[in-house]
Amino acid sequence: MGIWMQKKEINGKHGNLTIAFFDTEGFAASNISESYDAKIFAVSTLISSLLLYNSVKIIDQSDIDYLEVLARRTKLFALHSQVSTQKWKTMTFNHDLLTFPPLIWIVQDFVQSATDSQKWLQNLMESHFRENDEYEISLLSIFKSIDCHTMFLPAVQKSLLRDLSKVSEHDLTEEYKAEREDLEQKIYDLLVPKEKEGRPMTGTEMASLIRILVEAANNGSLTSIPSRWDSFVRNLITTAIVDCATYYRSVLESFDEALPPKEMQDLHRATEQKSYEMLAQLLLGYGIRVNEARDALGKKIEKYSKIIQRYNERKISLMITQIRNEIEEEFDKNLYHISLPHPSVQYQKIIEKLLVELPKRYQKMIIDYVDEQRLEEECSLINRSLILHARSYQTKNYKAFLEEMETAADTSFRLVHSAMDEFVTCLTTTDMEDKISELIQMYNESFVEGCSKSRDEEIFAIYKLRYEKLLMSKIGELREKNLRLLKEKLSSGVEVSALKIVKVVVKLPQHDLNKLLDLKGKAIIREFSEEFADYKDSSQFHSSLKILHVNLILFTVI
Prior knowledge:
GTP binding; Guanylate-bd_N; GTPase activity; DgyrCDS2977
């Protein structure tokens, strides 16, 4: 067991050389630990200038994986052995230990068809692939060079194959002999001294290196590096934890819509339990490590649960906002299509019905997603919002009533103005009052007709009275216009009648001239009174009559 060493002196292309052959036992024996195999491989590789690695029949993916693990552990061992041992204080740090020798991978009992074994191995390593690796592993980046040499069966008889130590040279197959000779030549061509800092190592340095490596291996420099099985178990546990946590997260994130908190909590518990069950199945038989893995999974689930819960809360808030907007839109939709102005009593009943039904529907839609306090806040919020919407529509309806009444008043006033513009002659008091009554009736009929929707509203009487005051102002203007026309007419009549006294022809001498003129004046006054008899009830008539009387006296005196 262990490593056997034998030396041989040859005369090679590099001159006279002393070759030290190191032969190791096979790996993966039933009574040997993997750590022991790693020590044998590490020491053998680090003291060699050419490494021969034997396999049987075929190289598969597991062989490549195993050799890669051994090689990388050897690199760490080389570093640890130099850093940790005190004996290296007498020597400079040997960086050459971190550079591996050339590798010849020998495949024994190879019966497959491979015309170029080197190319075959090259293709095999280049096609090597691992799923979900966080790093790239390649033997081509570890060893200085890699060659592959296949060897046929050394014998074909079963009895000989059972114990090759008893096989003579004569019993060997010709293919095996030829391939053995090729291998010997390949080794001979690749033989170089073990170097240190660019020069061949001396025997003393080689002995010191072997001693240091063996002591480092025995002192545990390699034990801190986990075995392949431990790594596998850890990777399995890590993968199982990640997979179960991913399963948990994928289930809880599979819902696009918000979930009620209770439903989310139930789903969390069920999925958490399922994740633990899956973990237990994946790690069945790993003892205490299952509990450790369960704790690690629990932490991941707790972390994911908080994240997903916050995300669900945001989705709930967005959903509630969307529902609130939809409720508000439905409120608007129910009122928007109603033509305005609409009877206030009916309009108020429609609004009150919506203010009762829609908040109830809103509460029913969100009650499973919020707690009692949040529900109360949301219901209060939707009520305030809908009340504001209701006031807005009531204001619009009120303004529509005002617009209808203003339009009706404008139309009615235009009719009154048109009738007043046609009024160019003065009227008697009776006719004037009749005309005013006619205009008021015209206005009222037009206004009431124009207020077909608002005349039954409470505000109708208020605004009707306001517009009637404006109408009375217009009527007052009409009276003033009639009075002005009457004054002008009476004034003109007074002037014409007063001039009549001047045109009276009297034969002189006349003994009773005053009496004659008095009679003429009375006749003129009588004619004036008869001409303007329709206006005798007005104060302007009597004033004009007095003015005429005075003018007649003045003209008589003159």
